[in-house]
Specification:
This protein has 456 residues and is of the alpha+beta class. The protein is globular and about 115 Å long.
Length: 456
């Protein structure tokens, strides 16, 4: 059996592991059982190197955790993670959170669902973790790992999802699965393509029946938006959208998209560029690509449907105009010096820089954005920060300002050697230059005695 404590520590990013530990401490302080569930556990078990999002289930009221999320329990020395955005779904008692460090997580009440009629929203009641796992879509997503301090790392797998992962199969948990929640057929196709998993035999029969019954026509706008958002967050959304269009299923997510001609090749270009930039995400660029052939009204409608955060939606809708203005300046003499390029691009959002790399092929623009993303950070990282701090000026705003001036001067080639860097730093900081180290005197060589001529 896998050691999930080791897997969580080694496979989660340092930021994700910090969030998990913080939530674990809060839940423990409130006497709540907290579990990592769903896709994260599936991917840890399968051996994925990158874990996308963290989903947590709580036996009890998750609001107790959310209220304390920004106030760490006593006795911890770690600063609480800052929340950048959160959205609460009152019906499910679930909250989606995006933290300032980029981690996305969901904290939800462990629940039981009762469907009074196929396709309608279920009746929700609180439940234990095993009931919560059994009401899920597929066995591979019905696994949980306890993060409670007293049982941390314990795997719960009531539907034997680990065996299905080993067989690389997606198995629905009951025959009514797709009828009750039609969004599951989109999830099956999307996950199957990402993981290269096939539907289990009975699941394939249930899926075919659901497709013949056109259950996908019963999706409500919220479900449509969630599935479209999940597709655009995929590594290869163009491939997924093309498969859905070929099977006539894209209209189930949006009627306008069902008749639109999507630029699938451009999705491939976005994917290639995003993979080349550390920390870049393609979601907003994928949204722009999805809606690029639609009118302004339809784009606004889809932004409200797909992107939950209004600020992020404004960034997505404004990408094209902002890129046009930025490219005009970036290609001019106003960005001729590397320091000018760096100053211009430093305050721009990451999606905008990625958008330029994807859509503006001019050599000058490509070179300047590429230098900013890859070359300039290396120049800054090689600067001797620790050595400069030993020369007399304490760390703080003044030091950072001088350090940045030196960095820009290096970019422009005004500083070309280490001694010149130290001299400029001392001049800007008002520090007397350190005296050159004395060269140790060489001991005098003993005078050699004159050779006595040999007498023959």
């Amino acid at each position: 059996m896998s050691d999930y404590n080791f897997l969580m520590e080694s496979r989660l990013s340092s930021e994700q592991f910090q969030i998990l530990n913080h939530l674990s401490r809060i839940a423990g302080s409130q006497g709540l059982n907290l579990y990592l569930v769903g896709g994260a556990v599936r991917d840890l078990t399968y051996g994925q190197q990158v874990i996308r999002d963290l989903d947590f289930a709580v036996e009890g009221n998750p609001q107790k955790i959310l209220r304390l999320l920004q106030s760490p329990p006593r006795g911890t020395e770690l600063a609480p993670p800052r929340i950048a955005h959160q959205q609460h779904q009152s019906q499910l008692n679930s909250t989606e959170i995006t933290f300032a460090n980029g981690v996305r997580a969901e904290i939800a009440m462990a629940r039981h669902e009762i469907y009074s009629k196929p396709g309608r929203r279920p009746e929700i009641t609180p439940a234990g973790i095993f009931e919560d796992l059994r009401r899920r879509d597929f066995s591979v997503n019905a696994m949980a790992v306890s993060v409670h301090p007293n049982s941390r790392g314990l795997l719960l797998d009531p539907t034997n999802g680990a065996a299905d992962i080993e067989r690389r199969e997606l198995r629905a948990l009951h025959s009514r699965s797709f009828q009750e929640d039609p969004s599951r057929l989109y999830r099956l196709l999307r996950l199957g393509m990402r993981l290269d998993f096939k539907p289990e035999e009975r699941t394939r029969i249930w899926l075919d029946y659901a497709l013949e019954s056109r259950v996908w026509e019963r999706l409500d706008p919220d479900q449509q938006g969630r599935e479209l958002r999940a597709i655009l967050q995929e590594d290869n959304p163009g491939r997924v959208l093309k498969r859905l269009a070929e099977r006539g299923l894209l209209a189930g997510l949006d009627r306008k998209l069902g008749t639109a001609r999507l630029p699938y090749d451009h999705f491939t270009r976005i994917r290639s560029v995003v993979q080349s930039i550390p920390g870049a995400e393609g979601f907003l660029l994928n949204f722009h690509c999805l809606t690029t052939k639609l009118g302004g009204t339809q784009r606004n409608r889809l932004a409200a449907k797909i992107i939950s955060d209004r600020k992020t939606a404004r960034v997505a809708l404004g990408l094209e105009g902002a890129a046009r203005k930025l490219a005009r300046v970036l290609g001019s003499s106003k960005a001729a010096l590397p320091s000018q390029t760096h100053t211009l691009l430093s305050n721009q959002p990451q999606p905008l820089l990625t958008f330029l790399r994807v859509n503006y092929r001019q050599t000058k623009i490509q070179a300047r954005v590429k230098n900013f993303l890859f070359k300039y950070p290396l120049v800054r990282a090689r600067m001797p920060r620790a050595e400069l701090l030993t020369l007399g000026l304490e760390a703080g705003p003044k030091f950072e300002k001088i350090f940045h001036q030196l960095f820009l001067a290096q970019l422009d080639g005004k500083i070309k050697s280490h001694p010149q860097l130290l001299k400029e730093y001392c001049a800007l900081a008002g520090i007397k230059e350190p005296a050159p180290k004395p060269v140790p005197a060489q001991p005098a060589r003993p005078k050699s005695k004159p050779k006595t001529p040999k007498v023959k």
